[in-house]
Amino acid sequence: MRYLLPLVVGATLVVGLASPAQAAGNEWSADLSGHAVTWGGSPRTGLIELGSHRLAEPANAVTAAVTGDGVVDVRGLRPDGQWTEWLQAPATLPVTTSTVQTRVVLSGGKASRVKLTASSVPAASEDVSVAAAGRSYRVYATREGLVGGTTANGHTIRSRDHFVALPSRRGLAPNNSGSYSVQVCASNGRCEWAPVWDVGPWNTKDDYWNPSSTREMWKDLPQGKPEAQAAYENNYNGGKDQYGREVANPAGIDLADGTFWDGLKLTTNSWVTVTYLWTGSGPVGTVRTSAANGTVNVRSGANSSTSQVGLAANYAQVRVTCQLTGESVTGTQGTSNVWYRIASGKHVAKAYVAGVSGATNC
Asked: What is d(CA 247, CA 232) in angstroms, rounded to the nearest whole number?
């Protein structure tokens, strides 16, 4: 069971498009009054995700005004087709983009309308020093549990489910989406690729994988060190989280039960290595499977007779380092003898991965 703050437990996401924008271009608005919001948690929290908006002119900054309660998060579409992280408006995005998406975060009452304006402002260049695989850090993982509960993006938690929680909504993917996914590897050599569908543990504004210049809170901590770890090990912030609670473990990630037990074969809370895949670059694909357990086997080679070395969850994104020819497999994406290498000694059949382009031969 994770140590999750009441703010997040039971939060519900209402997914759908807002009413059509009233003005095209770099100034637009959306009517929220027709959307029912289901509330949960203490204090109650809701999330309304709006559709993407095509700008008349490329921009990198967005301001927002909400009629009623709530704040607005925005993200921009990168040139490679991936999204930036969510940032609370007013926000300067790390890229200049022609497409932005917004969501309204409600903490009480209700909101009826949101008005947005996009513009171009001087900004520092995006950090391109990260390896193609993405930023990677060793953090402490706890098992989430909470079967039957609702995650921060509206997903109902199933028995032996496959997803993770990170302590910042900047990397929260929509339900049934893997736009923010992680590669989690245990010391036993097993890995799982899973989408980020919840917020926690402990904090909600601790994007510790980002540099201090862009980290939302705890900017004086080293990049890659969760605030909960610093509080637990070094009495940082008096040993408390952002809500003043005594931190009982150094967790920087929560794992759904299936990820914990089946993907990584863990039996107790453990240190793991997490790669935040959206911070990387290069070919990317989305896992699609109809299997009852919601996963695809990850193999040590390009053949189903090789050892299973992990799992890839449905909707998770994977970074493809190269492709090779192996056993012919039939899956949700047809029949193919191509396999993708998604980490050293880790392979998944192309028949279960959608959207990969530009992969080179191994």
From this structure: 6
- Amino acid residing at 130: V
Tens of pLDDT, residue by residue over 307-359, are 999 999 999 999 999 999 999 999 999 999 999 999 999 999 999 999 999 99
Q: Is 217 exposed, middle or buried (0-12, 13-18, 19+ CB in 10 A)?
A: middle
Inter-residue contact 269 to 141 (CB < 8 Å):
yes
Q: How far apart are CA 173 and CA 82, in angstroms?
A: 12
In the numeric block, which tokens belong to residue 242?
């952002």
Within 10 Å of residue 113's Cβ, how many Cβ atoms?
A: 17
DSSP conformational letter for 263 = I
Q: Cβ of 55: how many Cβ atoms within 10 Å? A: 20
Copy the structure tokens of residue 113.
């309308």
Tell me how far CA of residue 28 lies from CA of 56, 68, 116, in angstroms: 11, 17, 5
pTM of the full predicted structure? 0.91
Query: How far from the centroid of its chain's Cα atoms is residue 46's Cα?
Result: 18
- CA–centroid distance for 294 within its chain: 18
**Residue 280, number of CB atoms within 10 A of its CB:** 19
One-letter amino acid at 58 equals P
Contacts of 304 by beta carbon, 8 Å cutoff, 6+ apart = 297, 327, 329, 349
Helix, coil or strand: residue 277: helix
Q: What angle do CA 165, 319, 181 make, to 5 degrees?
A: 10
* Cα dist from 163 to 155, 159, 160, 262, whole Å: 10, 12, 10, 12
What confidence tens digit (pLDDT) does each residue in 22-45 have? 345 899 998 988 766 765 433 456
Instruction: For residues 74 and 89, give the distance between their C-alpha atoms in angstroms, rounded to a whole number.
Output: 6
Report yes or no: 46 and 106 within 8 Å, Cβ to Cβ: yes
Looking at the chain, list the stretches that DSSP marks H as alpha helix, in order from N- to C-terminal side: 227-234, 257-258
At 323, list the tokens. Answer: 């492709």
- Residue 164 amino acid letter: V
Q: Say if residues 22 and 28 touch (Cβ distance below 8 Å).
A: yes
The confidence score (pLDDT) of residue 24 equals: 56
Q: In whole angstroms, what is the distance from residue 86 CA to residue 96 CA?
A: 15
